[in-house]
Amino acid sequence: MSGPLFIRGSVSLPESELTWRFSRSSGPGGQHVNTSDSQVELRFDLARSGTLPEVWKQRALERLAGRLTGGVLAVRASDHRSQWRNRETAAERLAALLAEATAPPAPPRRRKPKPRGLNERRLEQKKRRGQLKQGRSSRSWD
Known about the structure:
Blueprint: E1 5-8, E2 11-13, E3 18-23, E4 39-45, H1 54-63, E5 68-69, E6 72-77, H2 83-102, H3 116-135
Antiparallel strand pairs: 1-2, 3-4, 4-6, 5-6
Protein backbone atom coordinates (compact mmCIF):
# COMPACT_ATOMS: atom_id res chain seq x y z
CA MET A 1 0.00 0.00 0.00
CA SER A 2 1.46 3.33 -0.98
CA GLY A 3 -0.12 6.74 -1.02
CA PRO A 4 -3.06 8.05 0.96
CA LEU A 5 -5.70 5.81 2.54
CA PHE A 6 -9.18 6.87 1.39
CA ILE A 7 -11.88 6.84 4.10
CA ARG A 8 -15.06 8.20 2.57
CA GLY A 9 -15.76 10.80 -0.08
CA SER A 10 -12.71 12.99 -0.60
CA VAL A 11 -11.28 12.48 2.91
CA SER A 12 -8.09 10.48 3.08
CA LEU A 13 -5.26 9.81 5.51
CA PRO A 14 -1.74 10.61 4.32
CA GLU A 15 0.89 7.89 4.54
CA SER A 16 2.84 10.06 7.02
CA GLU A 17 0.13 9.61 9.71
CA LEU A 18 0.16 5.81 9.48
CA THR A 19 2.65 3.68 11.39
CA TRP A 20 3.45 0.17 10.20
CA ARG A 21 4.90 -2.59 12.36
CA PHE A 22 5.81 -6.08 11.20
CA SER A 23 6.28 -9.27 13.19
CA ARG A 24 6.19 -13.01 12.75
CA SER A 25 2.77 -14.54 12.39
CA SER A 26 1.72 -17.20 14.87
CA GLY A 27 0.67 -20.70 13.99
CA PRO A 28 2.22 -23.66 12.21
CA GLY A 29 4.49 -23.27 9.23
CA GLY A 30 7.66 -24.33 7.52
CA GLN A 31 11.17 -22.95 7.57
CA HIS A 32 10.23 -19.79 5.67
CA VAL A 33 7.62 -18.81 8.26
CA ASN A 34 10.21 -18.75 11.03
CA THR A 35 12.21 -16.03 9.28
CA SER A 36 9.58 -13.82 7.58
CA ASP A 37 7.76 -10.97 9.27
CA SER A 38 4.39 -11.36 7.58
CA GLN A 39 2.05 -10.14 10.35
CA VAL A 40 1.20 -6.46 9.97
CA GLU A 41 0.06 -3.95 12.56
CA LEU A 42 -1.19 -0.61 11.26
CA ARG A 43 -1.48 2.21 13.80
CA PHE A 44 -3.21 5.57 13.40
CA ASP A 45 -3.10 8.30 16.05
CA LEU A 46 -6.72 9.39 15.91
CA ALA A 47 -6.49 11.83 18.83
CA ARG A 48 -3.63 13.85 17.34
CA SER A 49 -4.64 13.63 13.68
CA GLY A 50 -5.15 16.89 11.84
CA THR A 51 -6.43 15.46 8.55
CA LEU A 52 -9.90 14.33 9.63
CA PRO A 53 -12.64 16.96 9.92
CA GLU A 54 -13.24 17.85 13.58
CA VAL A 55 -16.82 16.50 13.56
CA TRP A 56 -15.64 13.16 12.16
CA LYS A 57 -12.80 13.03 14.66
CA GLN A 58 -15.14 13.53 17.64
CA ARG A 59 -17.56 10.87 16.34
CA ALA A 60 -14.73 8.39 15.82
CA LEU A 61 -13.26 9.07 19.28
CA GLU A 62 -16.65 8.40 20.89
CA ARG A 63 -17.57 5.33 18.85
CA LEU A 64 -14.13 3.69 18.92
CA ALA A 65 -13.36 4.49 22.56
CA GLY A 66 -13.15 0.77 23.43
CA ARG A 67 -10.60 0.08 20.67
CA LEU A 68 -8.32 3.05 21.29
CA THR A 69 -5.13 2.86 23.35
CA GLY A 70 -4.06 6.36 24.29
CA GLY A 71 -5.93 7.79 21.31
CA VAL A 72 -4.25 5.38 18.88
CA LEU A 73 -6.25 2.97 16.74
CA ALA A 74 -4.42 -0.27 15.91
CA VAL A 75 -5.43 -2.84 13.29
CA ARG A 76 -3.66 -6.17 12.91
CA ALA A 77 -3.67 -8.56 9.95
CA SER A 78 -2.05 -11.96 9.65
CA ASP A 79 -4.55 -13.72 7.37
CA HIS A 80 -2.21 -14.18 4.41
CA ARG A 81 1.25 -15.62 4.02
CA SER A 82 2.41 -12.54 2.14
CA GLN A 83 3.33 -9.37 4.02
CA TRP A 84 2.10 -7.28 1.08
CA ARG A 85 -1.39 -8.83 1.16
CA ASN A 86 -1.51 -8.40 4.94
CA ARG A 87 -0.65 -4.72 4.46
CA GLU A 88 -3.56 -4.34 2.05
CA THR A 89 -5.91 -6.18 4.42
CA ALA A 90 -4.90 -4.01 7.39
CA ALA A 91 -5.38 -0.82 5.34
CA GLU A 92 -8.84 -1.96 4.21
CA ARG A 93 -9.83 -2.79 7.79
CA LEU A 94 -8.66 0.57 9.09
CA ALA A 95 -10.49 2.42 6.31
CA ALA A 96 -13.69 0.44 6.95
CA LEU A 97 -13.48 1.05 10.72
CA LEU A 98 -13.01 4.78 10.27
CA ALA A 99 -15.71 5.03 7.60
CA GLU A 100 -18.22 3.32 9.89
CA ALA A 101 -17.16 5.31 12.96
CA THR A 102 -17.35 8.67 11.21
CA ALA A 103 -20.69 8.08 9.48
CA PRO A 104 -23.45 10.48 10.47
CA PRO A 105 -25.95 9.15 13.00
CA ALA A 106 -29.11 7.54 11.66
CA PRO A 107 -32.20 9.75 11.68
CA PRO A 108 -34.41 9.22 14.73
CA ARG A 109 -37.16 6.67 14.30
CA ARG A 110 -40.68 8.07 14.36
CA ARG A 111 -43.51 5.98 15.70
CA LYS A 112 -46.49 5.63 13.46
CA PRO A 113 -50.02 5.02 14.74
CA LYS A 114 -51.22 1.45 14.44
CA PRO A 115 -53.95 0.93 11.84
CA ARG A 116 -57.43 0.52 13.32
CA GLY A 117 -57.99 -2.66 11.26
CA LEU A 118 -55.02 -4.30 12.95
CA ASN A 119 -56.60 -4.02 16.40
CA GLU A 120 -60.02 -5.06 15.11
CA ARG A 121 -58.58 -8.20 13.46
CA ARG A 122 -56.72 -9.07 16.66
CA LEU A 123 -59.87 -8.77 18.78
CA GLU A 124 -61.92 -10.79 16.27
CA GLN A 125 -59.31 -13.55 16.27
CA LYS A 126 -59.33 -13.62 20.07
CA LYS A 127 -63.13 -13.92 20.05
CA ARG A 128 -63.02 -16.82 17.55
CA ARG A 129 -60.33 -18.60 19.55
CA GLY A 130 -62.36 -18.22 22.75
CA GLN A 131 -65.49 -19.63 21.07
CA LEU A 132 -63.48 -22.58 19.76
CA LYS A 133 -62.18 -23.37 23.23
CA GLN A 134 -65.64 -22.96 24.74
CA GLY A 135 -67.01 -25.44 22.20
CA ARG A 136 -64.56 -28.07 23.47
CA SER A 137 -66.07 -27.95 26.96
CA SER A 138 -68.02 -31.10 27.96
CA ARG A 139 -70.38 -29.24 30.27
CA SER A 140 -73.69 -28.08 28.94
CA TRP A 141 -74.55 -24.48 29.62
CA ASP A 142 -78.37 -24.88 29.33
